[in-house]
Amino acid sequence: MIFISEERKIREDGRKYNELRPIKIEAGVLERADGSAYVEVGGNKIFACVYGPKETYKRRLLRPDKGVISVRYSMAPFSVDSRKKPGPDRRSNEISKITEDALRPALLLEGFPRSMVEVYIEVISAEGGTRCAGVTAAAVALADAGIPMKDIPAGCAAGKMNDEVVLDLSEIEDKNGQADVPLVIMPRTGEITLLQADGNLSQEEFEEAINLAIDGCMQVSELQKEALKARYVLE
Known about the structure:
alpha+beta; five-stranded mixed β-sheet; 29% strand; globular
């Protein structure tokens, strides 16, 4: 059973209500991509790679005044307990689209008309919160590829379980919880590029969840910057 103490400090996995799961971020992990990243958030293990800007056969998507971004999010069949059917499904297509929308405001693609930046996100192990972790990985991969950006988006979620608002729900907490609020921000300006809410929250709880998720995003942002610095300092 999921448990939070009366002092709102301890969860089943030992975290405080406002504590993130362990996070690991690496940049430049795939040699054949223009940019790449690997992210672990708790039990989530995610690769992201970037190709472009480049010409593409998807000419109907191109714009004459600026470049465009295309995202494909997918989960490996072995990434979840019950084997997932290979190939895209409705959920993967939805997350691909919202990830595009979350990343697009950060990109400066006016210098690349009629070209496309392709982003591939592959979840090899899933443990709750993969959409936020996927955006986090994709943003690092875009920076690693040298794509001009206003900022590096960072993602994190908050939610509600046992009538308490908590940060960064694990898979078990998400499945047994009452609400989930994924959020992506551009840390320099605080601009929100993705905000979703699933479940029942009062206005006060919703505001608390957003504030917790923003704090989480800022912590993730620092780890993103450290990963990129480590990549280029080592070189």
